[in-house]
Amino acid sequence: MLPVRCFTCGKVIANSWEDYKRRVEQGEAPAAVLDDLGVTRYCCRRMILAHVELVDVVAPYQ
Amino acid sequence: MDIDILELSDRSARFILSDVDAAFANGLRRTMLADVPTLAIDEVNIYNNTSVLYDEQVALRLALVPLLTSFDEFTPHEECSCEEGCPACTISLTLSVEAPMGEEKTVYSGDLVSADPKVKAADSNIPVVKLKGGQQLVLEAIAKMGYGHDHAKWQAGVACGYKNVPVINIEGCDLCEKCVEACPRDILALGEESAEVVDDRLLNCSLCKQCVEACGIDAISVSENDTSFIFTLESDGSYSAEELIINAVNTIRTKASTLDNILGEL
Ligand code: SF4
Ligand code: SF4
Ligand SMILES: [Zn+2]
Ligand SMILES: [Zn+2]
Fold first, then answer.
1. Strands of B136-146's sheet, edge to edge?
2. Is B37-154 the same fold as B2-34+158-233?
3. Is B256 helix (H, G, I), strand (E, B) or coil?
4. Which of A24, B85, B174, B187 has the most CB within a 10 Å radius?
């Protein structure tokens, strides 16, 4: 799961993840999606860009 | 002291604070970050957690969810007369979500149900954990009023900062255009008789002084105004940006009068 807040500045970013993932999968450029979602500082952008989502891999094992 | 608002929205603000010294501007910044109390989840009683995250991880994620706070209705826990927590400094929220068999379900911050309708998650769409079919999360969370200097979850202001208002002087310019090319932020342009600051762009100057280096005849100088600051701040959602500024100023005022009282007693 994406951390709830940015480690550096503390802005809540977890609520941008689902939109980001959906729109990037539909072929939009990640930079444009982040701008649009209001994630403008590079500390927050790296949180989302560098995230590897693993819940679906580990979830079945509780 | 003078305040000139440049931008003000629900969650962010940008203004010019003038006729104050750097100590005051910094005091305001630090108060917004550390000394404006907010509500955040501090204790979690887990009744059932069959999700993939450990109890502690779930508790941390819940704690970082900003809760809408009314500044006047709660007392910070450490200043409250109680020891264990009472209605004046704490509030209880519950969460109960189960994913139906064979289906996935995400638990969101909006699933937190509080005893007081005014206290709720500032954003209802923050994912807490994704549940696979049959997994369950049932818990009670106790939110306490606390200070940002104790934990980042109580930090009301996010990315609060300021910089000095730039002062750019151009004298004896020979229109060589080198500074215009050197400026990374498009602040400068050539005018009729000398290079000029483009209208409305002055505040975007980063004070990098690349224009000064580029100028061969020292016609341009860049300095900072020591008593004016461009302040930017963002709120995490517990307060609106406007409330955050007002609460920060009230906090400083209370601290100053407390200090005054102590000094008076000596
Ligand atoms: S100090 Fe830097 S940003 Fe400001 S005008 Fe000069 S080159 Fe541009
Ligand atoms: S570099 Fe100096 S001389 Fe050239 S345009 Fe800029 S201020 Fe004028
Ligand atoms: Zn950030
Ligand atoms: Zn109490």
1. B38-49, B136-146, B90-98, B113-114
2. no
3. helix
4. B187
pLDDT at B23: 93
Asked if A54 has any chain B CB less than 8 Å from its own CB, the reply is: no
Half-sphere exposure in the Cβ direction for B47 (13 Å, CA):
11
Which residue of B lies nearest to A12 if distances are taken between CA atoms? B236
Atom index in ligand 2 nearest the CA of residue B214 equals: 1
Q: Answer whether B97's CB lies under 8 Å from B111's CB.
A: yes
Residues in B 74-93 with any Cβ partner in A closer than 8 A: none
Indicate the average pLDDT of chain B. 91
B22-47 mean pLDDT: 93
For B128-160, the pLDDT digits (tens) are: 999 988 899 999 999 999 999 999 999 999 989
Cα B252 to ligand 1 centre (Å): 35
State the architecture of B37-154 in CATH terms. Beta Complex (2.170)
**pTM given for the model:** 0.85
A6 labelled binding-site residue: yes
Q: What is the pLDDT of residue A62?
A: 61
| Ligand 1 lined by B220 (C-beta under 6 Å) | no
Give the lowest-confidence range in A6-15, B161-170, B173-182. Answer: B173-182
Mean pLDDT of B106-113: 93
Cα-based distances in Å from B47 to B119, B139, B143, B220, B241: 22, 5, 17, 68, 36
Chain B residues whose beta carbon lies within 8 Å of the beta carbon of residue A41: 159
pLDDT at B260 > cutoff 70: yes
Interface A–B counts its CB contacts (< 8 A) at: 62
* pLDDT higher than threshold 80 for residue A61: no
Give CA–CA dist B201/B199, Å, rounded: 6
CATH number of A14-61: 1.10.10.60
- CATH fourth-level superfamily of B2-34+158-233: RNA polymerase, RBP11-like subunit (3.30.1360.10)
Distance from CA of B61 to the nearest CA of A (A): 6
